[in-house]
Amino acid sequence: MMTFPEETLTKLTVQKAERALRQFSATSFALFEWCPFAWRRKYRQGRTLEWEMTDRENNDDVVGGAELGSLVHWILSKINFSGDYETEIDHYLHDKNEILSRLPGHIRDAWRRNDRNEKSQVKEWLMNFIESETGIMMRNTQGVEREHRFRISLDGKTVLAGAVDAVIDDMIVDYKITEVNDVPPGLYESQMDFYAYVIHDMKKLDRVRTIAVFLKENETRERVITDFEGIRERIARAAEMCASDLESSYNAKTEHCGLCPFKKGCVKNAGTIQE
Ligand code: SF4
């Protein structure tokens, strides 16, 4: 087995921590705030959290899952809300020859796997949204930035990176395919706080309105965010802890176990501890 001098190991550990600090996403931040133990399982150990499994891995009767969510987001980033959007949706959902080659690789399986019945449900979500108050507002507003990509420095050490589904002036629209009642309190708020901070920083705004759109139920949840210094401190603190190799950074927030979407199979689940 190859051995390294101690200073080399120290340097490698520091480099590893710096790499981890270099980039931080809204999902990563929200998961860390929800439960550092869940964050470690996903980002350090590379394990799939139950909530993110595909619909068939979880439950054959449910239309959902991370891949389907990505497919729905992809379609929403392409559709012209002012055009013949129904024909366009049909095209994106059914035109195999045209669409499969354009889809990002990681969502092709979800496209192939979804049968006609599931696709008709997806079409209904999309139609309902485009014809909703938020959809009509997006249709009637110039300069909607869809799939708004960002990469900004938080403090010279941490880069915030990702994409916001849509940005309209001082407003963020975020699409969800989770059902409203399945959303654990706080988890999505952290994600939206992160996005709001980014848009505040990029556009020099002192207030940002966030709209979470729950596509399955065609419902929205809105907030107005103004405490950007507080959010900046939370993100910086979480980023530092994520970059740390200290075990204590990843304590389970067992007070969240009862509502945790990742509790199935979690060894720390306060209800069913297995170790
Ligand atoms: S079940 Fe509890 S310990 Fe496990 S990830 Fe969820 S909150 Fe954390």
Give the SSE map:
Elements: H1 6-22, E1 23-24, H2 26-34, H3 36-44, H4 55-58, H5 66-78, H6 85-94, H7 96-99, H8 108-113, H9 116-130, H10 133-139, E2 145-153, E3 159-168, E4 171-176, H11 187-203, E5 208-214, E6 219-225, H12 228-243
Parallel strand pairs: 1-3, 4-5
Antiparallel strand pairs: 2-3, 3-4, 5-6
Helix pairs in contact: 1-12, 2-3, 2-11, 6-9, 11-12
Bound molecules: iron/sulfur cluster (SF4).
How does this structure look, described?
The protein has helices spanning 6-22, 26-34, 36-44, 55-58, 66-78, 85-94, 96-99, 108-113, 116-130, 133-139, 187-203, 228-243, and strands spanning 23-24, 145-153, 159-168, 171-176, 208-214, 219-225. A hairpin with a 4-residue loop joins β5 and β6 (219-225). The two termini are 32 Å apart. The chain contains 12 helices and 6 strands. The chain folds into 2 domains: 22-49 and 142-257, Lambda Exonuclease, Chain A (Alpha-Beta Complex), CATH 3.90.320.10; 53-131, no CATH class. The structure holds iron/sulfur cluster. Iron/sulfur cluster is lined by residues 35, 37-38, 252-254, 256-257, 260, 262-263, 266, 268-269. Residues 35, 37-38, 252-254, 256-257, 260, 262-263, 266, 268-269 line the site of iron/sulfur cluster (SF4).
